[in-house]
Amino acid sequence: MFKKYKPSKYLCYLYFILPIVVMLNTYSNKESDIWFLLSYGRKVLTNGFPKYDFLSMHSNLSFVMQQWLSAVSFYSVYKVLGGTGLFLLVFTVNLLIMYFLYKLCMLITDNKVFNSVITVCVIDILLQTFFLVPRPFLYSLLLFIIIIYILELFVKKNSKAIYLLPIVSLLLINFHASMWLCLFIFSMPFLVELFYLYYKHRDKRISKLIVILFISFLVGFINPYGIKNMFYSLTSYGVDIINKEIIEMSNLTFKEPLDLPNHFFLVSLFILLSFMIFNKKKPTIRQIFLTFGVIYMAFSNFRNVSIFYACVLPYLSMYLPFEETNTKEIPIKLYISEIIIVLLILGININNNKYYLKNNNQKYIDYLDKYANKDIKLYADYNNGSYFEYSGYRPYMDSRAEIFIKKNNGKEDIFDEACKVKKGTINYKKFLQKYDFDYIIVEDDDSLYYYLKNDKSYRVVLKGKHKKLYKKEVK
Q1: Are 209 and 263 contacting, i.e. CB atoms less than 8 angstroms apart?
Q2: 371 Cβ contact partners less than 8 Å away, ≥ 6 residues apart
Q3: Which residue, 83, 236, 299, 330, could crosslink 402 as a Cys pair with Cβ 3.0–4.6 Å?
Q4: Residue-wise pLDDT tens digits, 363-405
């Protein structure tokens, strides 16, 4: 049935509209991490690169701004166009992801258009369940796809594009340094295959790739924080408490809200492995190593499922049974109609403020701006701290978990302390005495929310549906 379906390549291109429309309507403007990233970008553009944390209330925490270039790009766009500008930036990067996914699939399939288009549409829609927000990982995914594309070009066609790998290294170390080592991890399957080709056929390309990778490693030193940036992932990932407490860092689970995304992952994994095992087209050495290496990463860390989609699932395109032969051109009116639909949806969403960046702490910030000063001692947790930081306050905590572990900051395991406070497993009075907070902003999933109800040292000055702002009583 599938082999009988032979659409024209022009019709195939129209299918790209599907993930674009999905993105226009599923974009999230409630991302909390963006606020500390905006603070980063503003800091770099006004004062350069800090060596100590400047956002939280804790002093002398050793600090590496490992995503500084991402932060600068986000802040620059936000300063000019606000939340809509951030959406347009994410939209543009998403289009680039689709483009390079298409180029990669076309390379893998030897230019089978429909196979490539269908695969790209599926992958990009699956990616919408992940980081459809302004985060550094968005840039990383794009660069990962480019890395795989360059390496595939080199192995299949001995392409000179391999000389671009050091440039990708330079971009990755500055856009998102914690992902920089992935350049070399993803290169390993290709090295293995080239070693095999050298052993069997005396193919000497292995030496060229090794030299290029060595140059790419040296290029990694071109960043504001040197070797600390290059190996930032070694001190920030694999931390038990972070993996346990932060949902995107957890392993495979079927608890909400990860149940549906993980089912999508398992279904796509099953389909790919079935084709690899039972299809007449046998996978290459590099595909086998890359697939199972990334599968291990995905089972270890939920966020890495998106890497599976971006870097491994494109190989599904080589197994699809479609073969397009009809090249009849589609009327230009159809293309124009599709563009008008996209622009209409975009315009309606902008007019309805769908892309407006939401700050769910604004009324609490307005209160503090009116009745307090910027140097108050403020308790805000992992989920709320970043909002106050962008407004000029220095809270106890924010969503930069790795900054608050001792092997990164060189001072104290603050993240562990914050988790114990939230769960009520430490004496809350000793905690409050330690920091002597002037104000406490707390949600109803925090033990302090309930302890403070009966604590006469603090009184409620502002409340919301699931959140309260407490002020310390002056004796």
Answers
A1: no
A2: 461
A3: 236
A4: 999 999 999 999 999 999 998 999 999 999 999 999 999 899 9
Q: Which amino acid is at 155?
A: V
Q: Which tokens hold the place of 319?
A: 């197994």
Between 261 and 360, the more confident residue is: 360
Residue 250 and residue 244 in contact, taking contact as beta carbons nearer than 8 Å:
yes
- Which residues pair with residue 442 across a beta bridge? 468
CA-based R_g, the chain, Å? 25
Confidence (pLDDT) at 251: 74
User: CA 356, CA 382: separation in Å to the nearest integer?
Assistant: 22
Q: Which residues contact 218 (CB under 8 A, 6 or more apart)?
A: none
Instruction: Return the pLDDT at 151.
Output: 97
Per the DSSP assignment, residues forming a β-bridge with 468 are 442, 463
Tell me how crowded residue 291 is: count the other CB atoms within 10 A of its CB: 21
User: How far apart are alpha carbons 441 and 464 in whole angstroms?
Assistant: 11
Q: How far are the Cα atoms of 113, 363, 439 from residue 461, in angstroms, in the given order? A: 62, 12, 10
- Give all strands of the β-sheet with 458-463 in edge-to-edge order: 378-379, 439-443, 467-472, 458-463
CB-count burial class (<10 Å; 0-12, 13-18, 19+) for 107: buried
Is residue 35 very low, low, confident or very high in pLDDT (cuts 50, 70, 90)?
very high
Helices (H), 165-254: 165-175, 182-201, 205-219, 227-230, 232-236, 240-245
Output the pLDDT for position 2.
55
Residue partners of 17: CB distance under 8 A and separation at least 6: 338, 341, 342
Share of the chain above pLDDT 70, in %: 95
Tens digit of each residue's pLDDT (9 = 90 or more) over 150-194? 999 999 999 999 999 999 999 999 999 999 999 999 999 999 999
For range 32-37, the mean pLDDT: 91
